[in-house]
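Running this now, will post back.
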Amino acid sequence: MADEVILYDYGPCLFGMRVRIFLVEKEIDFEFREENPLYRKRPLLLTLNPVHKMVPVLVHNGKPICESLIILQYIDEVWKDKPSLLPSDPYELSYARFWADFADKKIYWTGRASWKPWGEKGYTQEEAKKEYIESLKMIEEQLGEKPYFAGESFGFLDVALIPYSAWFYAYETAGNFSVEKECPKLMCWVKRCMERESVSKALPDPIMVYEFLLLLKKLRGVE
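Update: finished.
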């Protein structure tokens, strides 16, 4: 009997982009079911993820798995017959997990705060923009001269980080700065990753993401 794999997700959600890329890289067939966070959340989503009540949620043979980085590890561990995207060396694995966690705790929140006049999570808008750029530079330092974060091969950390690039244009436009000017090597990595079909299909058009940001601003009364 074939596995039933359903992904509850929303296009602009960068955490869902991770899962979509990972599933395609692992060559796992799945069904995409959209859950738009701007509208009233359906009871099913609240049942599948009662703690955070957010997408993405992966449902494998009726069992829900939540939180994107946990979902990636679950996929890698369950489908062992597929090539692994996680480092086999314990230190390299801990390194990759650290920087993925760093992105979620620093880049995600400073990016959100950079377009809000009142900031967010203790940041003012200007502080957020400054720390957002500084955090991207720290990520760029980890990349160095390598084509991918693990070296020659596209792997777990690339999957975890590349979705952030889908929001670059929106934040640049809202905040009047340029990621390519500040982090040219990082943008070369972005372009390299976008040559992979798994990435190019998972990441939405930057204009669409910006339009989504404008809608968020309108709904939240941000001018």
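The chain is about 55% helix and 10% strand. More later if anyone needs it.
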